[in-house]
Amino acid sequence: MSDATTLDRETNSPRAAFHATRAAADFPILAEALPSGKRLVYLDNAATTQKPTSVLEASDAYYRHANANVHRAIHTLSQRATAQYEGARDKLAAFLNASSRDEIVFTRGTTDGINLVANCYGRPRLSKGDEILLTELEHHSNIVPWQMVAEATGASIVVVPIQDDGSVALEDFRAKLSDRTKIAAFSHISNALGTVLPVKEMIAAAHEAGATTLVDGAQAVAHARVDVQALDADFYVMSSHKLFGPTGFGALYGKRALLEAMPPYQGGGDMIERVSFSGTTYNEIPYKFEAGTPNIAGAAALGAGIEYVEQFDMAEVFAYEHDLVARATEAMEAIDGLRIIGTAPGKAGIISFVMKGVHAHDIGTLLDESGIAIRTGHHCAMPVMERFDVPATARVSFALYNTQADVDALIDGLGSIQRIFG
Fold first, then answer.
1. Which tens digit of pLDDT belongs to each residue from 337-392?
2. Domains in the chain and their CATH numbers?
3. What would the pLDDT profile of 74-112 be if each residue is shown by its tens digit?
4. Which one of 380, 382, 390, 411 is the catalytic residue?
């Protein structure tokens, strides 16, 4: 074996040695010429990741060579489309270590998956006096659907608080559990602060209390090895576009028994077994939840995204990202007037911050003039902003293609802003 590869201990398959600079060359948009003439420094990965050439080619190849609907047609194009669509399900089931490919339901993304569970699992089972347990860290997508279900059923929302460093203490989570807790829904990694929650322990505690769990894995799938069986998650949701795949596509993992007991989310083609005006029988899982013509190109491209990350030793990638975050954090803390919001130990590749006398939007605008793309605002996590008494933060988020040169550019840009505003 050449020095460019290592052997994966679990599968004995060759893995490409990871080098961020080489990885960056796989993403065409990172060579984009900006109107300012500056080099693009893309640090908005928590919002969406960029796409490698292989993902772009997979989407293009579907439309060029397999553009047809899936499943029931017998012609060649339909068979090609079905192979790509169902092949992506197999890849994702293996990636998440689901016990069966039937436990992978394709959705429009994390938000869609949470709404599916809230409406098809939560709504039929909740009633007045029941409780839904959330954390103060949640994205709006893991708050609003549960509020809507609670309003419809008479259930109550109970919230686990955030500590001063942006973490969620396991003892605080346990203290909020009771025999009234029917569902506990929480992030794997906070999109606003980068906090990594102790999800395995939280799931175990919820199960001890008799509650069903949903984990929002949108931020985790590209930054941590996710094993849904080891976690014992009841439901786990993710988005393709956070895993170097296309927007508008994602998946819900659910334990087979739970999915089989749930009613369909939407009615239409492909989610049925037989239809007549006297009644309809539904398809088996996962197809029961996949009404209508699906995003076939999205599935093919997600499959390519999974193959892209799987070529690397992900433990090496994660260690690299943590080192990049540590370097960036140290340099940012040395800038006068800059305060990092969320300092939980072991956090993922997200740094949210404020600067004294400078609005977050001004930070984003001035960095953009230097070719540096970050996110500013409340990050669809208004309760987090309220907890830390800030109207908004600037957020830097890293991916495997970011380099020390990107960190240096960011620090230079922030230093210039500090000098401008004094």
1. 999 999 999 999 999 999 999 999 999 999 999 999 999 999 999 999 999 999 99
2. 5-52+313-421 (3.90.1150.10), 58-310 (3.40.640.10)
3. 999 999 999 999 999 999 999 999 999 999 999 999 999
4. 380
pTM of the model: 0.94
380 is catalytic: yes
Distance between CA atoms of 100 and 94, rounded to whole angstroms?
9
